[in-house]
Amino acid sequence: MKKILISLFAIGGTPSLPLQPLLAADGNELYKTKGCPACHAIDTKTLGPSYKDVAAKYASQADAAAMLAAKIKSGGSGTWGKIPMPPSAVTDEEAKTLAVWVLTQK
Prior knowledge:
The chain is mainly alpha-helical.
C-alpha cells in the first residue's frame, strides 16, 4: 500500500482515490491476522468491548485514532472494565491502520 500511495503523491500531489476503502480492507485483514478476535468482536462485547462500542465512544474525539493506536500498541486498562488489554504485536503503522478501521465500525 505504501508504494501505491507514494506513487499517487508523486504524480498528482494528492491521491485521487479515496483512502478509506484501502484502510478498511487493511484494517479488517489486520484484525483477522493479529489476534484481535480472541478478545474483540465487531458488534458484540466479548472479553473486550465491541468495535462498534469503541467507535461510538470516541466518535467525537479529535485525536481518537492516535489515542487508540497507542492503546493497541501499548495495551491499557480501566477504560472498559477490570480486564486489561495486553500490548499488541503490531508496528506503529499497523496500529494506526487498525485504529482508523475500528473507528469506522458503526
